[in-house]
Write a structure and sequence with these properties.
Elements: H1 5-20, H2 23-47, H3 51-65, H4 69-81, H5 98-111
Helix pairs in contact: 1-2, 2-3, 2-4, 4-5
Length: 117
Amino acid sequence: MTRYEAIVIATLIVAEAHTSANSEQMIALIRSRAVIEQAKGAIIAARHCGPDEAWATLRRTSQQFNVKIRDLAVALIEHLSHTPQPTPDGTPAIVPTPEARQAAELLWAAFTIPGDT
C-alpha cells in the first residue's frame, strides 16, 4: 500500500473535490499535503530515517500536543525557515496555532540535542 500512497491520496483528493464541488477545499487539501511532505523531508534529513518513520513522528507529535498535523507541519517549516509559509494567491493560508508552534519547536529541539543520534 505504501508504494501507491501518492496515487491513492491524489485520487481521494480528486474524488472529494468532485463530490463536494468545492475547489477551494481541494486546494486546501493539496496545500496541506505539500507542507506535510516538506515537514517529513525535514525530519528525514535530521533523523536519517525513512518516510514512514517521519510520518509516524509527525502523527505522534500531533497527538501528544493535540494539534492538527497540517498546523504542526506548517509550524515546523516556518520554525526552520524563520519565515511564514507563502500562500499562493487566492488560496486560504494555513496559520498554525500557538500550540502547534510550540510543538514544532519542541520537536525540532528533540532532534538537535547534542550527542543525540
